[in-house]
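User: Structure with S-adenosylmethionine, tokens only please.
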Amino acid sequence: MADPLTNDSRDKTGATDSDIAKAYPTMDPYRLLTLSRPAQILPIVEMPLLEDCYEIRDSPLHGKGIFATMDIPAKSLIMYERAAWTIPKKWLLKMYPFDPDGKGPHLINQHFDSCVANMTDDNDEVNKAAVEAVFALDGGFEGIEDPIDELSKLDLARGLARIVAKNAKSHYFKNGERNWVAIFQDPSRLNHSCMLSAEMHLWQFKDGPRTDTCTQVRAARDIKKGEEITLQYTRPFDTTEIREAYLSFHDIVCACTLCTGGKNRVIRSDKRREKMQQAWDAMQIDFTRLSAAIERPPLLKTQKAMLEREQYMAEAGEAIMKSMNEIDSRLKPEDQVGNFMMWHLLQTFCEALRFGTRDKQLIVASIERFLALGESFKELHAGVTAAYTAQLALLQRKIASEGA
Ligand SMILES: C[S@@+](CC[C@H](N)C(=O)[O-])C[C@H]1O[C@@H](n2cnc3c(N)ncnc32)[C@H](O)[C@@H]1O
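Assistant:
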């Protein structure tokens, strides 16, 4: 599919093509992730889409699924798509719980109309395709050729509600809450596996008066030709019990190879996930400590206070590294625990710390370097900037040449 999208991150961050071109060759594209909380992750810039690398066909997991038509190397960009239909939370709240006698059905139809169907005419192939794609999704209107023509308004709303319930993707956007859900043409066909092979990343941007949603799907590991490409709908490190509870809420009994592969395997994987979760939690606390120290420098700028702060940051950095190493050492292929975006994000942040484990001054120097790029940690988190990536590359080279 040709890339239909504008690269919003560049607009937001002010980075120009040539800035990015300059920074890009020196960096692993994965390092171009912003240093942000997951909800604020913007698209990874300048990573080419692997064209025609998948097909949709019947899946042993459920209904249709996405399958690799070639060997796909880890981290490849598999899909890059604009949502066919985005429903903001305030609309969702009006629509659900679905009450056939209430206003919900009318509102679902109205929202669908205003977002997609009304904009469709014979000259607007993209939107026509979007309408057809939404109607074709799992659980909606199987066997019905033209739902708008053939169905009553209530049945139309019922079908659309089923489609939203089964196929919508969302991001925990603000304060851990889902602020919208979005339906995609191909990414909504990705089945779940507790041993995911890909990760989905969603973000929103303004397109004139409309708020649009985009997604990128990336290979979380090398995927072999013919293999099904799967996401993990649950959170990273969730054990079987938690995954089952979450999935059953969505009426899913998982048929993935881990869940059907024998009890012992599941138990071993759960144990590893528990340990990794503990390390992850510890890391979050240290990450917060480090952020706080960076954001709130000591009021007294005495040498002693500055040294104490540096020491504190270095200790938090080392603790983060320890937890990361703990997770790294436990992670097995059958624990494709998901959210590798978040993972790499954190790794990006810790990269400078990684270099410095044996040298606290370097840790501090690298933090200072990071700081020089933004006035506060939050600001630093705000977006992918070419300046940031170029600086990070410089930092890497400097530290490498100093033999850290
Ligand atoms: C977003 S759809 C995935 C695509 C869907 N298979 C199709 O035919 O379009 C999500 C639905 O697929 C099914 N599904 C996905 N992963 C599954 C799995 N591992 N085991 C069983 N059912 C699964 C569930 O019914 C779920 O509600």
